[in-house]
Structure formats: structure tokens, C-alpha cells
Amino acid sequence: MTRIGRTAARAAMRLHPRAWRDRYGLEMAGLIDDSDSSLADAADLARSALHAHATGGAPMRFEPAHRHPGPFALVAALLLLPTFLVVAVSYLGHELGFSAVADAVDPWIAQLDDVRILDLFLVAAPAIALIVAVLPLLDLRIERDEPGPAVALRVRAIPANLAVGAVALLVGAALVAHIVVESVLRLGA
């Protein structure tokens, strides 16, 4: 960066809000000192300072779940995947009578049952996935009304979240049915 460009970039960097400078100031100063850029880069920094002031200057915002339903559906699906696979393979091997699948998978499932934390995760995953998938569908607000504050609940229908939630319910129901049947068969009742 030329001497004039470096001076202009440092001045433009000081135009940013304090929160931005506290978070990125040292890193940006290092980039300014180490780079070989022009006045155009200083102008870009000035533009970003204007944008930061216009949007509040916060470098990161945590927003309510209802604003980001897609990532919640993805996380719920990833949480549900191990339980779905265990239930599907167990169903294929035992309920549909594919003995080769049952013979191959039973020792693996027995090992999973011995590790209590994994067993607990597999049992709890459908409920956790259902909560994570449905959470962004709910928008709970307290609104100020003429007679006083009111609680407002808005429910949205987002296909990906609804699909993951429905699969979580089905997998959870299949898992509970399997656990009940296994418990009854083991007890001989």
C-alpha cells in the first residue's frame, strides 16, 4: 500500500463503530500494514464503515430460531440420522425377516447397547430432533395492546422442518414400539 493509501485506510478504519474496531481493529491494522493496495481499498473500508453505522455496527447477531428454519431442519435431520439407521436396519432384519441383515447387525447393536451414553442418545435423538425441527416454526411474542400486554403465537408451516419433524415422530414411535415389544418378549408376558 502506498503511504497515502495506508494513511487513508487507517483513517477509514477509525470511521467504523467501536464494537467493530474492538473486534477487528488489530487484524485490519495488520492487513493494512502488510498489504500492497491502493486508495480504492481505503474507499472500500470507508464504505464498510458507513454500512456498519447504518446497520448498527454489531459484528454478529444471534437471532430467533424462526428466522433460520433451514439450518434447524438440517441439524434435526443429522441428530435423527443414527437412530433412523439403527431402527431401519433392525426393522429390515427382524420385522421383515432378512436374517442375513439381522445376523450382520445384531452384534453391532449389542455393542451399542453396552455403551449407555450412546444408547441414551439413540433413544433421546427423535425427541431432540423433533424439538429442534419444530422450534423455528413457532414465533412467540409479547405484544403491547390497548388493554395491556398480550402473548401472540404464530405457527408457520415450513416443508423441510415439518418433514423432519414427522420423520422424528415416526422413528420415535417405531423405537418405542420396538423397546416395548422387546421388553414384553424378554419378560415373557
Describe the overall structure.
- This protein has 189 residues and is mainly α.
- It has a two-stranded antiparallel sheet with strand order 1-2.
- A hairpin with a 4-residue loop joins strand 1 (138-144) and strand 2 (149-155).
- The mean pLDDT is 83.
- It has helices at 3-14, 18-34, 39-54, 69-95, 99-114, 116-134, 159-187; strands spanning 138-144, 149-155.
- It has two domains: 3-54; 65-187, no CATH class.
In short:
By secondary structure, the protein is mainly α.
Any key phrases for this structure?
two-stranded antiparallel sheet; 72% helix; 7 helices; mainly alpha; 189 residues; 2 strands
For the secondary structure, the number of strands is 2
Which segments are poorly predicted (pLDDT under 50) over 5 or more consecutive residues?
none
Any idea what the radius of gyration is?
27 Å
**In angstroms, what separates the terminal alpha carbons?**
82 Å
Largest sheet: 2 strands, antiparallel
Which assembly state applies to the chains in this document?
A: single chain
Order of helices and strands: HHHHHHEEH
Secondary-structure blueprint:
Layout: H1 3-14, H2 18-34, H3 39-54, H4 69-95, H5 99-114, H6 116-134, E1 138-144, E2 149-155, H7 159-187
Antiparallel strand pairs: 1-2
Helix pairs in contact: 1-2, 1-3, 4-5, 4-6, 4-7, 6-7
